[in-house]
Backbone:
């Protein structure tokens, strides 16, 4: 099961909070939620993974797809507070070399105001 | 002393979570450290998902996947057996974690097998009695 909550801040950064497991069964729902936001023009995204306790390669694939889309729209997708377990998987795939990862949602949001 | 446990699941995507739940339970009952339990879950998830997606082409109704966990004092060995076409997943080209974003494949590109090889200490493949056998070993201690 994966739950997705979306909130757009005053600084026009969209926070997507995911909760639960992201695996081959539901990664497409997770990906569709991200693409839905991007299709609406929300291309500055903080993906908060604090509530995600498990992610397989299927979930990473959706993050890579979304990252490509936001970059094409001159935006970015930045990840906040992944668990140690999820971070390990992201590092194995080298995601930490192509996406900025922050230890808190606040720091991820602040990073956009610095670059605005 | 070696203890073996066995699970048979249908070759359908909705069964992957059942396989994960089962391997976590077996590993926890065996007293494995949490990090090893997590790695076994990821390896089983990726292996079973690959079989259902590629070996069975999402048409695994009527086909099954067998998972055998053998716990020995110094290792845990997980064998995954499927009846798809003969395919050695270890022979495909490994993805590169340093690949730039634009050069990454949208379709996945072998990360599942790559993860299995990263989190397990030894992975081997054999084809026997018309079935694929993927053997994944985690050394303990």
Residues:
């Amino acid at each position: 099961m994966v739950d997705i909550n979306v909130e757009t801040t005053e600084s026009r950064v969209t926070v997507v909070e995911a909760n639960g497991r992201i695996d081959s069964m539901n990664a497409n729902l997770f990906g569709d939620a991200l693409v839905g936001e991007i299709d609406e023009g929300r291309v500055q995204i903080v993906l908060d993974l604090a509530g995600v306790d498990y992610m397989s390669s299927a979930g990473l694939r959706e993050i890579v797809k979304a990252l490509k889309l936001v970059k094409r729209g001159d935006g970015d997708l930045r990840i906040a507070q992944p668990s140690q377990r999820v971070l390990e998987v992201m590092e194995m795939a080298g995601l930490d070399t192509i996406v900025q990862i922050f230890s808190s949602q606040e720091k991820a949001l602040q990073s956009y105001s610095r670059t605005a | 002393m070696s203890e073996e446990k066995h699970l048979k699941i249908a070759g359908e995507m909705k069964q992957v979570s059942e396989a994960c739940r089962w391997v976590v339970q077996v590993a926890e009952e065996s007293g494995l450290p949490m990090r090893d339990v997590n790695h076994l879950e990821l390896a089983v998830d990726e292996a079973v998902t690959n079989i259902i997606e590629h070996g069975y082409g999402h048409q695994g109704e009527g086909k099954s996947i067998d998972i055998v966990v053998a716990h020995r004092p110094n290792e845990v060995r997980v064998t995954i057996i499927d009846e798809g076409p003969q395919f050695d997943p270890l022979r495909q080209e490994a993805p590169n974690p340093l690949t730039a974003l634009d050069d990454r494949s949208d379709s996945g590109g072998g990360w599942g097998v790559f993860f299995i090889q990263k989190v397990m200490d030894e992975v081997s493949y054999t084809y026997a009695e018309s079935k694929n056998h993927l053997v994944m070993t985690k050394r303990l201690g």
Summary: Chain A has a mean pLDDT of 93. The CA atoms of residues 105 and 112 of chain A lie 11 Å apart. DSSP finds four helices and five strands in chain A. The interface with chain B takes residues 21, 23-25, 54, 56-58, 60-61, 64-65, 67-68, 71, 85, 89, 92-94, 97-98 of chain A (CB under 8 Å).
